[in-house]
Design brief:
12% strand; 338 residues; alpha/beta; eight-stranded mixed sheet
């Protein structure tokens, strides 16, 4: 069996491909092609020229935003010169040492794609999925070389946030896991390793635990949406920027924490109570509330351009990421402590 190149050598492949050119795919392409150590030949594949055109526009915007915030280490023209676009899957993956799938979050669609990729892309090339929650077994079952299939899950917006999750399946090889982490590290990202494939991985489990409780607080009428969001943006978020939840508990003192947790955690063990927030959320969606996209969700969004709102939030996020690139910031450990 062929194995991926050793991460001790240059871990970057000469060619890479991104399959799917939506918001996430475009951002991942920028990560692959951006930076001094960017991959020199990155193919972006989508099914239509129309979606390719949208991807080009998104990528131009992402690259310009990164440059404006001082987060691009090469000239924008260099990043663009490394990218090519195609509607042909065979053309996109030809010669690729890494393929990142970012198509719709549907197991059958991904399974069909990975079966094709397994035929088109010979080992030791790595086949990675940007799935948010699907276990590898649901889409890699049709592949022959399951040892080289792995999850590389980016957060939205992919081009802005410095971390991603790397999740191995039961048949993923140690060599694939090590090579995948080495590639993202060389590209300036911090891979967060999951030791096994678990529903929701790392970030979505943390995120949905918080969101579930936020929805329950709203459903029970205990606080407004505005105050719930402010509790996070002005309370929890600033603390978590400087220290994550476990380090922050250490700093505050575990003796005090265990007293609070012993009383509160049983109240948060929802059991059948989990049906309360999901029923509340389903009622909003069933009534036609889709959020920003159609102007109705937890908030009303009258007469706003969804693209403009997202660009404003991305801009604020990039400013925050830039502020973290100070002399005390260690990109590999994301720690400011000795």
């Amino acid at each position: 069996m062929k194995t991926p190149p050793s991460p001790s050598s240059n871990p970057l492949p000469e060619r890479a491909a991104v399959i799917g050119a939506g918001l996430m795919g475009a951002g991942i392409a920028v990560v692959l092609a951006g930076g001094v150590n960017g991959i020199e030949n990155v193919s972006v594949m989508s099914r239509s020229e129309e979606s390719i055109s949208r991807a080009r526009a998104r990528i131009h915007g992402y690259v310009a935003d990164l440059a404006r915030h001082g987060l691009l280490s090469v000239e924008p023209a260099i990043v663009h010169s490394r990218l090519r676009f195609t509607t042909s899957l065979r053309d996109a993956v030809s010669g690729a040492g890494l393929v990142v799938e970012s198509v719709t979050e549907d197991a059958a669609t991904k399974r069909d794609l990975f079966t094709q990729l397994d035929d088109l892309v010979p080992p030791p090339a790595i086949l990675a999925s940007n799935t948010s929650a699907l276990p590898i077994a649901e889409f890699a079952g049709g592949t022959t070389h399951r040892d080289r299939v792995i999850i590389a899950h980016f957060l939205q917006p992919a081009h802005a946030l410095p971390v991603l999750e790397v999740v191995r399946g039961p048949e993923t090889s140690d060599a694939t896991d090590a090579a995948m982490c080495a590639i993202w590290t060389a590209l300036g990202r911090r891979p967060l390793r999951m030791r096994r494939d678990d529903p929701g991985f790392l970030i979505n489990r943390l995120q949905h635990a918080l969101v579930r409780e936020a929805v329950r607080l709203l459903a029970d009428g205990l606080a407004t949406a505005e105050d719930i969001d402010a509790a996070v943006t002005h309370g929890l978020a600033p603390r978590f920027v400087t220290a994550g939840p476990l380090r922050q508990r250490d700093v505050n003192g575990l003796a005090m924490h265990v007293k609070v947790a012993s009383r509160l955690w049983p109240e948060l063990d929802m059991g059948d109570g989990a049906r309360v927030p999901i029923a509340f959320l389903n009622a909003i969606v069933d009534a036609g509330g889709l959020g920003l996209e159609n102007g109705r969700g937890f908030y009303d969004w009258p007469d706003v351009d969804p693209g403009a709102v997202r660009r404003k939030l991305d801009d604020e996020l990039l400013a925050l990421v830039k502020s973290q690139h100070d002399p005390g910031w260690n990109a590999q450990t994301t720690e400011r402590f000795p």
